[in-house]
Amino acid sequence: MSAPRSSTLPAANLEPARWLRTGAVAYTRMLELINNAKVSIRCETYIWGNDAVGGRFLSAFAQAAARGVSVRVLIDGAGSSGLPDDYWHALSRAGGEARVFNPITLRNFSLRNHRKLLLVDDQVAITGGFNLAAEYDGDGVSGGWRDLGLELHDPRALRQLADSFDHLFTEHHMRRWFLRSLQRAAQANPFSRGAPGPVLFSGPLLGRNQFTHQLLRSLRQAEHVRIVSAYFVPGFRLRRALRSVARRGGNVELLLAGRTDVPLAQSAARSLYGSLLKAGIRIWEYQPQVLHTKLTIIDDAVFVGSANLDARSLSINYELTVHLRDPLLTDAADAIFNSDLAHARAVTFESWRASRTWFTRLHGAWARFLLARVDPWLARRQIRRIR
After folding, report:
1. N or C: which end of the chain has fewer CB within 10 A?
2. Is 58 exposed, middle or buried (0-12, 13-18, 19+ CB in 10 A)?
């Protein structure tokens, strides 16, 4: 059931969208919106940390619920599995509700909700790569992981986000009948109705992957491509599309992780560098902190959200990505990219080849096999069992 609508924009900003350049900036803005909420709050995150950041948001949500705001929180059963059983009691006592998406079982463990969203009073939303945990609370240079958020006021996007949240919140147990209903009622499903809007969805049994489709479509005639990706293990079609842009004279730049929390993903990514560099694609690795940003700039459009460019985000997880064609927003994204390049190390074909020992080649091939083949295979088996 949808929360009631509000006609008042909390702490309104007249821009249709604006960047929140770091996790610390995003958290400050999110807490400001929560503290000014009048009617409803929807919050969705993969990881909710049992730490100071999680505690700040829990307290803010409980206070909002106590003053009569409808507060609903959706966390993932794997990403937030470390929370104690009584963690949400303060929110429940205040009148709010927290649910766990797809609690971990051997039957369904692969299917995860990786989305990040705060939607306040159906008037303003924040999304991006950051979860609600202490490691994201910083500037990405001197402290905290490097991440990026987007604040949205576009009514079309807000309606999409509200519908999709309500759908997943209601069906958080991932019951068999729910998955069958996705196939039977595609037109009624908020994830897959009609032509895609500003928000592109991906996830199991949602029909065509809107994000992958729009990304490949945008690359066909692209001249200027800049990608920041925390976990970069794209499939063959996406790698081919990027190489094609570079070979026909376009500019393709990749900013990838120099420091990472998932070494397996980094090893798989580095195994792909050779063919990309030979095609004329330029690659950098971000150095000061763990890179967690998910940003793609293609000509005058941007893609930003929760999805990484790997098999799990593109074919297994529930994800959301905002796609906006806005020259001013794109110019600001280019400025952010340039700023991050100042803290990155360039990777040349010669330096990459010199680093490829027999062990790194074997480890990279094995990492790609696990992430691009085994993980999707396990997910497909689980989906078939619960249809």
Report:
1. N
2. buried
Let me know if residue 116 belongs to a domain.
Answer: yes
Residue 264 belongs to domain spanning: 205-368
Domain count for the chain: 2
Is residue 97 assigned to a domain? yes
- The Cα–Cα gap between 206 and 192 comes to 6
pLDDT in tens, 99-139: 999 888 777 788 899 999 999 999 999 999 999 999 999 99
Signed CA dihedral, 331, 311, 209, 129: sign only:
negative
In a domain, 56, yes or no: yes
Indicate the pTM of the whole model: 0.91
pLDDT band at 383 (very low <50, low <70, confident <90, very high): confident
**Nearest to 302, CA basis, from 310, 311, 293:** 293
Domain endpoint, select from 131, 151, 174: 174
What mean pLDDT is reported for the chain? 90
310 neighbors 265 (Cβ within 8 angstroms): yes
> Mean per-residue pLDDT for 351-368?
96
Check whether residue 137 and residue 227 sit in a common domain.
no
Please work out, in degrees rounded to the nearest 5, the angle formed at the alpha carbon of residue 143 by the alpha carbons of 113 and 137: 40
Transcribe 180-213 into DSSP letters: HHHHHTTTT-TTTSSS--SEEEE-TTSSS-HHHH
Cα–Cα distance measured from residue 164 to residue 191, given in angstroms and rounded to the nearest whole number: 6
The size of the chain, in residues, is 387
Q: Are strands 124-128 and 301-305 parallel, antiparallel or unpaired?
A: unpaired
Q: Are residues 133 and 69 in the same domain?
A: yes
Q: Which residues contact 282 (CB under 8 A, 6 or more apart)?
A: 252, 253, 254, 346
Q: Is residue 315 part of a domain?
A: yes
